[in-house]
Hints:
This protein is mainly α and 347 residues long. It has helices spanning 8-20, 27-34, 39-55, 67-243, 248-332. It is rod-shaped and about 245 Å long. It starts with 7 loop residues before the first helix and ends in a 15-residue tail after the last helix. One of its GO terms (molecular function) is DNA binding.
Amino acid sequence: xxxxxxxxxxxxxxxxxxxxxxxxxxxxxxxxxxxxxxxxxxxxxxxxxxxxxxxxxxxxxxxxxxxxxxxxxxxxxxxxxxxxxxxxxxxxxxxxxxxxxxxxxxxxxxxxxxxxxxxxxxxxxxxxxxxxxxxxxxxxxxxxxxxxxxxxxxxxxxxxxxxxxxxxxxxxxxxxxxxxxxxxxxxxxxxxxxxxxxxxxxxxxxxxxxxxxxxxxxxxxxxxxxxxxxxxxxxxxxxxxxxxxxxxxxxxxxxxxxxxxxxxxxxxxxxxxxxxxxxxxxxxxxxxxxxxxxxxxxxxxxxxxxxxxxxxxxxxxxxxxxxxxxxxxxxxxxxxxxxxxxxxxxx
Length: 347
């Protein structure tokens, strides 16, 4: 389409001016003559002027002119037309070449425009996909940030819980050590008390045994003395019987006395044996009491040891449960603390 700034009449006047100067009209010369206008509009008007000139080439000049003038005009017109045709053929060839170039350039421009449009469409689709992916990544990033904040909060709570468990574990271990120390001290005091009681019982038993041995020695001495006295009396009686056979009545009296003495000695011996049996019974009773006390002490010691083992088992079970709870809490939260070595139950 021609621009409104350059009309066909303007182009025609510029062509007439160029032809009056003897110059062949062209788009560039017309543009220089007019000083304005686009090459496309001037080219369209120039083609229109050439088309009209070709159509009016065979039109006879108007009548009424003098013959000489008409012949001169026709000759001039013929010369001008021939010159114009020659110039026109040259310029037409040049114009056709330029038109072909322009068409090729236009086709290339259209192709480039189509390529640019396709690239623009592809870029728009790609940008749309990028925007969608960006929105998706932004949403995922926001979700990840939310999850990260939640994880940080859970980690902080887990660390607080872990610190609390560590403090509780340390307090429990301190309490266990204190109780163990108190228990050991109580056991040592009880063992010391048992040792003191055992020493006292041993001392009492030794005293009783010493007394018993003293009594036994005394009884043996008395028995030996009685036996020795009895032997002396029998010897004296025998001597008197041998020497005093003649004094039968005296011997009978002495014999009765001797029998009475023998009876007394036997009775004393029986009494000594009874006292010895009583002392033996007392010694056996003391031994039985001593064994009973030792058995009771052993039972009490075994009961204390059983209580101590039961207390240690409960204590270590409680510590193990706390350690398992601490391990489960630590496993549930990704953490960065060093592992606490497990204590081994001595039971």
